[in-house]
Design brief:
The protein has 186 residues and is an alpha+beta fold. The protein is 27% helix and 34% strand. It is built from 7 helices and 10 strands.
Length: 186
């Protein structure tokens, strides 16, 4: 699907995202699996989304630490985390459907992320997440339009993926995500 979406006029780049849920202590949080080597180019991540470094620096740290995880400032405060600390997340395994404890390593703070809720959430490497959950499925795609005719691109993407997917554009969600991205939820 990524290749098909890249061929749509007005689409500059496409970045697949895995979306899972993970328990951090008793709190259920959104967990996003990303390709940390490509997401800064495709998603135009803003430095203001992160604490402790630029978007590129934090994604480089994530790429260098396969089991790395970026967490919200709220979670850092709640669990008194320091960089390098182990973080055990309970994540649903695809084969057993049971929530299993999976070790991660805290590498930084993420304050905002495309498609993420405003409160607590996590960002990890997609390859590691796919491995530990036995589920490589992509939940959504971030589509960079470069700001050019986003409603027209949204319609073309909607036509390409069909009625089974939800397609939103940045014009619709400008208050939630401040960039030139379109999100496709599958």
């Amino acid at each position: 699907l990524t290749g098909e979406l890249r061929r749509i006029p007005g689409v500059r780049d496409v970045e697949p995202l895995q979306h899972r849920f993970a328990y951090v202590g008793a709190d259920l949080q959104d967990l996003y699996g990303v390709d940390s080597t490509t997401i800064t180019g495709a998603a135009l991540l803003q430095d203001s989304y992160f604490d402790g470094g630029t978007a590129a620096q934090l994604m480089d740290r994530l790429a260098a630490q396969p089991d790395g995880v970026l967490v919200s400032a709220e979670t850092v405060a709640d669990f008194q985390l320091s960089p390098g600390d182990p973080v055990n997340l309970r994540i649903q395994h695809a084969a057993t459907t049971a929530f299993e404890t999976v070790p991660f390593r805290f590498i930084g703070v993420v304050k905002e992320f495309p498609t993420a809720p405003k409160d607590s959430f996590l960002v990890a490497n997609a390859a590691y997440l796919a491995q530990v959950t036995a589920n490589p499925a992509v939940g959504s795609f971030l589509i960079d339009t470069g700001g050019a005719d986003t409603p027209a691109v949204r319609q073309a993407v909607s036509d390409a993926v069909g009625a089974g997917a939800t397609v939103t554009d940045i014009t619709t969600v400008r208050g939630t995500v401040g960039s030139t991205l379109t999100s496709v939820g599958l």
